[in-house]
Amino acid sequence: MEVHRHLDEELDALRDGVLRLGGEAEAALKRAMYALTKRDSEAAREVLEHDDAIDELEIEIDRQCIDIFVLRQPAARDLRFVMSVAKMAPVLERIGDHGCNIARAVFDLNNEPELENHIRLQQMGEIASSMLAQALDAFARNDAHAARDVIKRDSEINDLYNEIFHDLIEMMAKEPATATRDARLLFVAKHLERIGDYVTDICELTVYMAEAAIIKHRR
Amino acid sequence: MSNSIIAPKFEVINRAALPARETKIAVEGLNFFYGRTQALHNITLNIPEKMVMAFIGPSGCGKTTFLRTLNRMNDVIPGTRVEGKVTMDSEDVYAPGADVVELRRKVGMVFQKSNPFPKSIFDNVAYGLRINRLTSNKSALEDRVATALQDAALWSEVKDRLKSSALGLSGGQQQRLCIARALAIQPEVILMDEPASALDPIATSKIEELIFDLKKQYTIVIVTHNMQQAARVSDLTAFFLLGKLIEVNATEKMFTAPDEKLTEDYITGRFG
Amino acid sequence: MTTLTALCTLVAVGILVIILGYIAMRGIGALNLRFLVDSPRPVGEGGGIGNAIVGSAVLLLLSCAVGIPLGIATGVYLSEFGGGMFASVVRFLVDTLTGIPSIVTGVFIYAIIVLRMKHFSAFAGGIALALIMIPIVARTTEEMIKLVPHSLREGALALGAPQWRVTLGIVIPAAASGIATGAMLAIARVSGETAPLLFTAFGSRFFPRNLNEPIASLTVQIYNYAISPYDEWHAQAWAATLVLMTLILSINILVRFLTRQKF
Predict the structure, then answer these.
(1) Does residue B56 belong to the interface with chain A, where contact is any CB pair within 8 Å?
(2) A2-211: what CATH class?
(3) Confidence (pLDDT) at C177
């Protein structure tokens, strides 16, 4: 149908936009974690520079969603798709912001003595990255089952966060000299934990989009 | 779209349910024939009272034919045949001795193109009252006409010219006049066949507001081509295709997550 | 193209104007008040067409009284119930009737009424004219009723009106002006008939007293005067023709005037 061809094209363009935005957020997270573990200020700077692109992508997606709503009056699965995209874009943008926050922490951390083993932070970062990648994949394939699987992994991040929290608090008590560094690392862990929550949001939106089931706020 | 693959940890928030209502019109296994052509296939549907039900579907899907079986307006077309049951308030509408005139008094109809009689505004609204002898004296008649015009949101526009010709009204006013004419005899059900399709957007929205008010008192069934109108105006929606009833659902569910793929394809504009 | 069609129109209209003009010219001479009021007198004594005018009026009234209701009823039947075999037959017969030469109608009435009654009468004349009117009225009524939009009928039916009520109260009033036009055109047609009256009303020299007697009419009078050998009567024939033409013209103008206000 001629009229519907436009809507199909626009919906595809929207999907591409989200995946591009998601790719940028993913890259920002990976780069920030690299900068953190390798103590690389250059990499951290790149993260901050790329953030503008992420913001612009989100605004563009916003605009496209409004246009589709008013001009095409989508219904049923198209409606749920556009609605989910409109809610997903800001979430991805915030993931990018948290990446920036981690990158900013890198500058300060590089002036502090290195923490010997931040295995768990690295783990958190990897889980967050892979969760994000899988969530975007589930979105692209309209796969609610895969999305639900990703949501389950959030508990891993939360568990890691709790462990790091206790360890760092303990260290801050035992070695007040490095308390600043420990506090910053705690915040980095917090950012990663938030990213886990955001990825969960993305997956809940994917489930709604695919199945019209609203599963948020119920865990 | 069923929710069969839900992991036990996750629940679905229930949508606000529609109020439970008595069934006003029950249709069971309805088949309808124009001569040898079958236009409706095995329709089974319950229409609850004091709600708005919309019939949607592509042109030629049978929704108008089905609407007209509810007040036996298809009887005037020669060669038509009905099989199956249509009951209103538990009485079979097509029973051999059924009173068609009485049925049509209880089930009013508003048509796609407004059809006021070439008489005065007053006489138009009074027509049903007069032929059914529903009022005993002149002042009672005048009261009923005024009430009907008020209910149809037309009174303020015509109260000073009740004796002038109905044909001098605008399209939107004429349609509201036809609604007033139908309301005057106090039906229980109002059938509307694309009542706003010939009207401009402002007149259309007046009719839609009117429907919203009317459903407090009347059961309303509206056939519409315009899906956004069905979404705006109705509580329940029934989707017809090629003479079959494909799906009937709460409107909100129908337009966000219909049960049938055919319905979804139609609603998203992928055919028809 | 335009000039050619304009030329043809001029010729057609011109002929009509010439006819009217010629009649007026020949007839105006004998036209005066006495002429319009008196009944015929023997040659040389003047006389007039007063009784003929009255006679024509009586015949017209009689034929309307019979022909118009029957015509309308037939038209209503054909349009409202016109689907079946019987209706098709009726419609065919009605169409055939419109084509029957009026003299044949006259002879027919002569055979079945005049011979039975053993004398000519206004009654027979009226029936003959009615027979000519009926198919005209029936067909125009049917067409006018068919023009009433079906939506109007459905609107009334949906309010619980039985079919007869819809027909009488909604359809016929809506078609009323069209039906009236048909009736008036039928009147204009029969007011010019001569042949049927020759065998039925026959003609008379007196003012009519009752319907059972022969009666004069303008058309027959014109015929009688025209074939007579007297010049005076020829002049009177011309004058009577002028009167008849004026009357028919007036009816047509009236029809145009009354039907200009469509509801």
Answers:
(1) no
(2) mainly alpha
(3) 84
C42, two tokens: 């023997």
Within a domain: B71: yes
Identify the domain containing residue B86 by its residue range.
23-115+188-267
Residues of chain B in contact with residue A77, where contact means CB-CB under 8 angstroms, are 257, 264, 268
**What's the confidence (pLDDT) of residue C81?**
80
Contacts of A132 (CB under 8 A, 6+ apart): A22, A25, A26, A29, A95, A195, A199, A202
Q: Which amino acid is present at A184?
A: R
Of B155-164, C108-117, C244-253, which gets the smallest average pLDDT? C244-253
Task: Tell me the three state secondary structure of residue B83.
Answer: strand
**C119 neighbors C55 (Cβ within 8 angstroms):** no
- Is the interface score ipTM higher than 0.95? no
Count of CB atoms within 10 A of residue B77's CB?
Answer: 11
What residue ranges do the domains of chain A occupy?
2-211
What DSSP designation does C29 have? G
A75, B256: Cβ pair inside 8 Å? yes
Q: Give residue B6's pLDDT band: very low, low, confident or very high (50, 70, 90).
A: very low
List of chain A residues whose C-beta atoms are within 8 Å of the C-beta of residue B239: none
Kindly state whether C149 is in contact with chain B, defined as any CB-CB distance less than 8 angstroms. Answer: yes
Pairing outcome for strands B80-88 and B91-92: antiparallel
Cβ atoms of B231 and B224 within 8 Å: the answer is: no
Six-digit token pair at C132?
Answer: 């000519």
| Binding-face residues of B in 193-232 toward C, CB within 8 A | none
Handedness of CA B89, B91, B92, B96 (dihedral sign): negative
**A216 neighbors A152 (Cβ within 8 angstroms):** no
User: Any chain A CB within 8 A of the CB of B231?
Assistant: yes
Confidence (pTM): 0.79
Assigned domain for C65 exists:
yes
Q: What is the mean pLDDT of chain A?
A: 92
Domain membership flag for residue B257: yes
- Which residues in chain B are closer than 8 Å to C169, comparing Cβ atoms? 131
For residues A83, A88, A90 and A91, what is the CA-based torsion angle, rounded to 10 degrees?
150
Mean per-residue pLDDT, B9-26: 66
User: Which parts of chain A sit beneath pLDDT 50?
Assistant: 1
Q: How many CA atoms lie within 13 A of C109 on its CB side?
A: 26
Domain hosting C114: range is 47-258
Give the total number of structural domains in chain C: 1
What's B120's DSSP letter?
B
Residue in A48, C108, A90, C149 with CA at minimum distance from that of residue B117: C149
Tell me whether residue B232 is in a domain: yes
**Is B256's CB within 8 Å of A211's CB?**
no
Nearest-CA neighbor of C201 among C101, C100, C127? C127
* Subunit contact C158:B73, Cβ cutoff 8 A: yes
Query: Does B37 reside within a domain?
Result: yes
Structural domains of chain B, count: 1
